[in-house]
Amino acid sequence: MNERETLKVNKEGHLEIGGADCVALAKQFGTPLYVFDEAYIRSMMRIYRDTIAEEYGGRGLVLYASKAFSCKAMYVIANEEGLGADVVSGGELYTALEAGFPAEKIYFHGNNKLPAEITYALDAKIGCFVVDSAEEADFLDAEAAKRGITQDVMLRINPGVEAHTHAFVQTATPDSKFGFSVHNGTAEEMTRHILQKKHLRLLGYHSHIGSQIFEKQSFVLAVEKVLSFAAEIKKKYDFEPEAINMGGGFGIWYTDEDNKLPAGGYRGYLSALISAVKEQCRALSLAEPRILIEPGRSIVGEAGITLYTVGAIKEIPGLRKYVAIDGGMFDNPRYCLYQSKYTAVLANRAAERPTELVSLAGKCCESGDLIGVNMALPKAERGDIVAVLSTGAYNYSMASNYNRNLIPPAVLVKGGKAEYIIRPQRYEDLVRFDVIPDSLK
Length: 441
Ligand code: LLP
What we know:
Elements: E1 7-9, E2 15-17, E3 20-21, H1 22-29, E4 33-37, H2 38-56, E5 60-65, H3 72-80, E6 84-87, H4 90-98, E7 106-108, H5 115-123, E8 128-131, H6 134-146, E9 151-158, E10 161-163, E11 168-170, E12 180-181, H7 186-195, E13 200-206, H8 216-237, E14 243-245, H9 265-284, E15 290-293, H10 297-300, E16 304-316, E17 320-325, H11 334-338, E18 344-346, E19 356-361, E20 370-377, E21 385-389, E22 410-414, E23 417-422, H12 427-431
Parallel strand pairs: 4-22, 5-6, 5-15, 6-7, 7-8, 8-9, 9-12, 9-13, 13-14, 14-15, 17-19
Antiparallel strand pairs: 1-2, 2-3, 4-16, 10-11, 16-17, 16-21, 18-21, 19-20, 22-23
Bound molecules: ligand LLP.
Ligand LLP binds next to helix 10.
């Protein structure tokens, strides 16, 4: 299924993740349940870290894009593996700090960081802000001045590379709320703006071209655009970036319809990117900058699965069969949002071949509440355990309490044993912030 063989079918015909029997996990922890394989997460982190070490003399840093899955345990693992972290909100920053993550290795993103988030991050002494508006630069400069510090920043630029899973196109006037275009003068203007700030130190440029990308060429093209921009700026303002951050976006397997990884797998993406940086720097007479990348999905996506129990089954003759599970859009809204495709397995009968195509329906009061349509499964029965694969990224992190369903807990599997990394919610938690005002009493 996936590169590192997180998943296999054991002698009982049960699905195993990281050596743990999914049927036993469902019994022990209940369903729905997010399950993560620690070894997989660490192995992905190491691939990126070691590639930068071996092919670029360690001149760079891998930042875990924690939006993919943010909880304290993830920051502990990322820190142990020598990664930095990218955060995009005060909440992610708080979680990282609570987990003991070193503040200086935290990069703060966002197109509209709130003043309170900025001062919180400054007071926590985070490493770097990725600036994405003139007002942010102004505010940050003033706040840094008040604290008597010079704050490291990067500037988010838009290289005008629109990346898709299958192809990439260049857009001269990209329409995005993120970054400043290298094509219309705004990136240059913002660079100048930041360079004039006394209390900001511009490290270099940040670019992120999209997510679930399989084309190495898209990353190479982005490097070319970022470094040509850097060369232009060097000529005009004598500023050379000491670092560039090429964002995240490496694709993962969800179904067999997905593109295959390029030769060399995940190391291959980074190798291509590193070679492009070296080549471009030579061609443009730039000093080789430190290279930062921010993978999220590829670190944690295939490391995670979600276990559900089959409940109601409804067949609409000649039309469709709905197999309903005890989760839904509240734990995985990606079908509703993006019509994302997933692969499902009956964890208690994992050796059986699929015999039918079904729609995996959630339990929310909403017709569109599906995990997927036309998913191949053996004939499912009430009580079967369904495992939906590759749910480690952007599932828990986008979960909600819609319909006042409880967000499922998450366990981390190591050497076949599982422990909570996110405890189960209880109904009491749902009303914890509810208030009945006096006027209603
Ligand atoms: N850096 C920046 C600035 C980003 O905006 C993102 C993702 C990443 C890094 C990490 O990208 P990754 O390696 O995970 O592809 N909710 C969507 C995905 C949104 C991605 C947003 N930015 C989904 O469920 O597919």
